[in-house]
Design brief:
Strand content: 5-15%
CATH class: Alpha Beta
CATH superfamily: NAD(P)-binding Rossmann-like Domain
Number of helices: 6
Shape: globular
Order of helices and strands: HHEHEHEHEEH
Distance between the termini: 53 Å
Largest sheet: 5 strands, mixed
CATH architecture: 3-Layer(aba) Sandwich
Oligomer: single chain
Number of domains: 1
Length: about 210
């Protein structure tokens, strides 16, 4: 009888090193960054983790990617967005970043993290920062009725952090299946970007470094 390895076990069995922490808790996110930095220079970070609802919505989907971006030095960054970000509101009034109460929808959280991507692209010209809509795929989050191909869900992210294709070596783009598409207008709004960044800095106490 063969045992099925988890994705983490499969990778560590091949020599990968894991870092561990709960992305819903700010102190543990900071600890994850410390663990990662002890491994040596980081080439790329794909901010893939996310939740669709519950108290961890803003902490996991927005706060964690921001803190890891600020504390880990990497040359390529990819943020997981969603087509649902088009239904989000470019308004952070009353947002509870700690997640003690629900103040935002999943669509809002994906708009915020996609805006973070473009904020990083504008403020950090020394890195490549992009966002990816992986499609509606049949994962535990997407559900069994999802209509997109699961085999394609990871392709664009992996391509963006490894390729030397000139088309991909441009920061601040929103991708779906290796094609650029237009994001929500709020993503490009520099006033909204600055408002969001100021709120993230105030809540976390962590500044986004300049190059």
């Amino acid at each position: 009888m063969h045992e099925t390895l988890s994705a983490v076990e499969d990778l560590t069995s091949r020599g990968a090193v894991s870092v561990v922490g709960d992305l819903a808790h700010l102190d543990e996110v900071q600890a994850i960054a410390e663990q990662a930095n002890r491994l040596g220079p980081i080439d790329a970070v794909i901010h893939n983790a996310g939740v669709i609802d519950g108290p961890g919505l803003l902490p996991v989907n927005v706060i964690a990617p921001y803190v890891l971006t600020a504390l880990i030095s990497a040359t390529r960054l990819v943020y997981l967005s969603s087509s649902m970000h088009h239904g989000g509101s470019a308004d952070i009034t009353g947002a509870d970043w700690g997640g003690s109460r629900k103040t935002a929808s999943y669509s809002d959280s994906k708009l915020y993290v996609t805006t973070l991507m473009d904020t990083v692209a504008r403020r950090r010209p020394d890195v490549l920062s992009n966002a990816v809509d992986p499609g509606w795929v049949p994962t535990r989050m997407g559900g069994p009725w999802a209509s997109d191909d699961l085999a394609l869900a990871h392709v664009t992210q992996a391509w963006l952090v490894t390729t030397e294709d000139r088309e991909a070596l441009v920061s601040g783009r929103y991708w779906h299946h290796q094609r650029t598409v237009q994001p929500h207008p709020g993503v490009r709004d520099e006033l909204f970007q600055d408002e969001l960044l100021a709120a993230l800095v105030e809540y976390t106490g962590v500044d986004l470094p300049r190059p």
